Amino acid sequence: MDEDLLHLSGIQHFMFCPRQWALIHVEQLWADNVLTAEGQILHQRVDDNTVRQLNGGVLTLRRVPLVSRRLRLSGLSDAVECRRADEGAPSSVQLPERDGWWTVMPVEYKRGHAKYDETDEVQLCAQCMALEEMNDIVIPRAAIFYWETRARTYVDMTDDLRNTTARLAGEMWSLMAQGKTPPPQKGARCGRCSLADLCMRKAASQLSATDYLKKNLYAEDA
Q: How many CA atoms lie within 13 A of 10 on its CB side?
């Protein structure tokens, strides 16, 4: 990843919990639980960087590189669906090794089901904003496929969603520049976090998570 850019997928972690994001991206810590393990297995099904021809003339591109200098984020898409368009049609692009013009729409794959907040939507919006910036187009909507329900949710790229995404990206960079990890805000979401145990122990010790681990590792070796 470009050193001047943060991981695009981290914006979902940040909206879910800024502290979780900082533990992962500022302090470079990670721990799996059953939810993250299931998510990794499910993504293996779509993380194929080949091009496939689907029914109805839709091309699906896997693991498309995404870069937004405005948001200062970069990453890879799960999928970008491309549909044929008339030459010069709004929001259309030309694809390498393909004739004609195409509209593009990111599709993000998630385990579970649609959420009550915008944690998934802001990640999808960041992907759209990156593709728009790279191709000088506008993407009006995109989709999230949820494995649990086997259903798509279409998300309109509204001004409010775009503004929220840009604001979160700015806050991520602010925390990264300061090297700070926000204090814990214990709630129901903690039960779904793979870092919950480490997070709470870190808070109790008043050490950084990295220093906490070092302290305990040295204690075990003594």
A: 29
Compute how many other C-beta atoms are within 10 angstroms of the C-beta atom of residue 64.
19
Q: Tell me the sheet residues that pair with 46.
A: none
Strand partners of residue 79: 62, 107
Spatial contact of 62 and 46, defined as CB atoms under 8 Å apart: yes
Per residue in 168-201, pLDDT tens?
A: 999 999 999 998 888 877 766 676 677 767 776 5
Q: CB within 8 A of 151, min separation 6: which ones?
A: 145
Q: How many C-beta atoms lie closer than 10 Å to residue 53's C-beta?
A: 9
Distance CA 58, CA 98 (A): 12
Q: Nearest-CA neighbor of 110 among 185, 39, 212, 163? A: 39
Q: What is the C-alpha separation between 131 and 104, in angstroms, rounded?
A: 9
Query: Tokens for 22?
Result: 């900082």
Q: For the chain, how big is the Rg over CA atoms in Å?
A: 19
The DSSP output letter for 130 is H
Please state the φ and ψ torsions of residue 58, each to the nearest 5 degrees. Answer: -95, 125
Mean pLDDT check: name the lowest of 52-61, 98-107, 197-206: 197-206
Q: How many residues does the chain have?
A: 222
How many Cα atoms are found within 13 Å in the side-chain-facing hemisphere of 59?
A: 20
- Burial class of residue 68, CB neighbours in 10 A (0-12, 13-18, 19+): buried
In whole angstroms, what is the distance from residue 168 CA to residue 14 CA? Answer: 7
Q: How far is CA 3 from CA 78, 79, 131, 189, in A?
A: 22, 24, 20, 31
